[in-house]
Amino acid sequence: MKTIEKSYSKESFERWGDTSAYRELEQKTKNYTKEKWSEANDGVMAIFADFAVCKESDAEADSNEAQALVAKLQTHITDNYYTCTDEILAGLGKMYVADERFKENIDKCGEGTAEFVSDAITAYTKKI
């Protein structure tokens, strides 16, 4: 699996380089080792795998279980990358299904996982 700092760095800078979240990402991750990047990125994928299990259990995107996973994802992003506001989280949810690269990567956890995550994020950000 490619790491975020290498595979999307140029594109990320072009899209979000002038945002405070991007500056926070640069500051927070400037001393990350390869192992720390792997730990952070693997943590995101583990949460997506948990979403896949939740989806397979026939839980709804607005269920308590799915909503707890959204909160866990938001906290993980904030702890490891940048402050993931509800607005940013909502944008990520849309990107997870709109950008085929993200969708394909998330769906490695199980077909339809990206859509489920997106729907769960939508439900979560509407509640707040």
Q: Can you tell me about this structure?
A:
There is one protein chain. The chain is an all-alpha fold and 128 residues long. It has one domain: Globin-like, CATH 1.10.490. 76% of the residues lie in helices and 0% in strands. Helix 5 (64-80) crosses helix 8. It is globular. 24% of the residues are buried. The model is unreliable at 1-5 (pLDDT under 50).
Characteristic terms for this protein:
single chain, mainly alpha, Globin-like, 8 helices, globular, disordered N terminus
Number of E strands: 0
DSSP summary: helix tally: 8
| Radius of gyration (Å) | 14 Å
Summarize the main sheet.
none
Anisotropy-based shape: globular
CATH class (first level) name: Mainly Alpha
Order of helices and strands: HHHHHHHH
Task: Explain the layout of strands and helices.
Layout: H1 4-7, H2 9-16, H3 20-29, H4 34-56, H5 64-80, H6 86-98, H7 100-106, H8 113-127
Short description:
This protein has 128 residues and is an all-alpha fold. The chain has eight helices and no strands. It has helices spanning 4-7, 9-16, 20-29, 34-56, 64-80, 86-98, 100-106, 113-127.
